[in-house]
Automatic annotation (TrEMBL):
Subunit (UniProt): Homodimer.
Free-text comment on the cofactor: Binds 1 Mg(2+) or Mn(2+) ion per subunit.
Pfam family, one: Iso_dh
Subcellular location: Cytoplasm
Reaction it catalyzes: (2R,3S)-3-isopropylmalate + NAD(+) = 4-methyl-2-oxopentanoate + CO2 + NADH
SUPFAM superfamilies referenced in this protein's UniProt entry, alphabetically: Isocitrate/Isopropylmalate dehydrogenase-like (SSF53659)
Keyword annotations: Amino-acid biosynthesis, Branched-chain amino acid biosynthesis, Cytoplasm, Leucine biosynthesis, Magnesium, Manganese, Metal-binding, NAD, Oxidoreductase
Primary localization: cytoplasm
Protein name: 3-isopropylmalate dehydrogenase
Annotated site location: Important for catalysis: 142, 192
NCBIfam families per UniProt: leuB
Positions with a binding annotation for NAD(+): 77-90, 288-300
Length: 363
């Protein structure tokens, strides 16, 4: 059988720096675990613009459609700020998301014990936290028509429309249930069915998909405002949360802050199942290209490394290998290894990007 295929798009700024540490882990897995990948690398964002005059070539796009998973670093930087909108680095990433039709955005909030004191909440509330928010990414109020600012009599009116079709809700619900089966088999769906028709439909369709195809998964429903409150009060009651584009935007940012630094947060964007039954997928750290620290060896590679761990679990069915990577991250943090972004007020000497990667490989 062919090796699983991975397309690496390191991109701009700290992207290549953090990706270099993932490549060390890939090398280690091949040498020590006998896990081989068919890795290809290409340019995206400003790097692609510099080489080809476009932030994503058609050839790269075609390759992204073919592989089992894409791992992306970051795009953009001040050098490209004055470019025409049509060739901005960010457009490369948007094209990938759009043409791969990545409608399901997974944002884990995972709290490593050694960093529990970084949270804005009490240690016992967040220590050991491990939840995933699944946000619908391609529809809802950010896309619905009509939209615009219109004149109505003597004043202007701003209009956006929350619109969800049954199939849009069903496919993201499926993606959440599939994810739950790889975790603790528990999904909480959030909407505002008390005041929104789209919320009523959301609740009905999620329940129908559950009853038809996923009766083994424990499903609950919650109003999104109550959900926001519960997320801050006792987040460990959740495992997978599935919600729409707008509520997911807010809830995933709130959940991220339960756990601390931007340098720690991975993400996945999933689309429809491919011929092998696994979803189209793009994995990337939540952080951007961090131009303020790029080229200095200061970036924390953990968000990118944990994004790769998500790829191992969700695209390659290598859950045990994913756990191995996560445990190594946990161990180096417990040992007190810290990049600059993870330094607390007590201070200390931070390690470099490469030293952090080496420590994780050693662990
Ligand atoms: P984007 O528009 O691409 O989201 P941004 O300007 O919103 O980018 P980032 O590029 O993520 O944000 O940077 C925000 C801040 O966080 C910066 O000060 C940056 O240095 C810091 N930062 C981001 N990622 C990391 C990382 N991996 N390690 C250390 N610091 C980071
Ligand atoms: Mg940003």
């Amino acid at each position: 059988m062919a090796n699983p295929s991975l397309l690496i798009l390191a991109g701009d700024g700290i992207g290549p720096e953090v990706m270099a540490e993932v490549k060390k882990i890939i090398g280690w897995m091949g040498a020590r675990r006998g896990v081989q990948f068919d890795v290809s690398e290409d340019l995206v964002g400003g790097a692609a613009y510099d080489a080809h005059g476009t932030p994503l070539t058609d050839a790269t796009m075609a390759r992204a459609q073919e592989v089992d998973a894409v791992l992306l670093g970051a795009v953009g930087g001040p050098k490209y700020d004055k470019l025409d909108f049509s060739v901005k680095p960010e457009r490369g990433l948007l094209r990938l998301r759009k043409e791969m039709d990545l409608y399901s955005n997974l944002r884990p909030a995972q709290c490593f014990d050694a960093l529990a004191d970084f949270s804005s909440l009490k240690r016992e509330v967040v220590a050991g936290l491990d939840i995933v928010i699944v946000r619908e990414l391609t529809s809802g109020v950010y896309f619905g028509e009509p939209r615009g600012i219109f004149r109505e009599g003597n004043e202007r009116v701003g209009i956006n429309t929350q619109r969800y079709t049954e199939s849009e809700i069903a496919r993201v619900a499926k993606s959440a249930f599939e994810l739950a089966r790889k975790r603790s088999n528990k999904v909480c769906s959030m909407e505002k069915a008390n005041v929104m028709e789209s919320g009523i439909l959301w609740r009905e369709v999620v329940q129908e998909v559950h009853d038809r195809d996923y009766p083994d998964v424990e499903l609950s429903h919650m109003y999104a405002d109550a959900g926001a409150m519960q997320l801050c009060r006792w987040p460990k009651q959740f495992d997978v949360i599935v919600t729409d584009n707008l509520f997911g935007d807010l809830l995933s940012d709130a959940a991220a802050m339960l756990t601390g630094s931007l340098g720690m947060l991975p993400s996945a964007s999933l689309g429809a199942p491919m011929a092998n039954g696994r979803p189209k997928a793009l994995y990337e750290p939540v952080h951007g290209s961090a131009p303020d620290i790029a080229g200095q060896g200061k970036a924390n590679p953990i968000a990118c490394i944990l994004s790769f761990a998500m790829a191992l679990r969700y695209s390659f069915d290598l859950g045990a290998e994913a756990t191995r990577v996560e445990k190594a991250v946990e161990k180096v943090l417990a040992d007190g290894v810290r990049t600059a972004d993870l330094m607390g007020p007590e201070g200390g000497t931070p390690v470099s990007t490469a030293q952090m990667g080496d420590a994780i490989v050693a662990a």
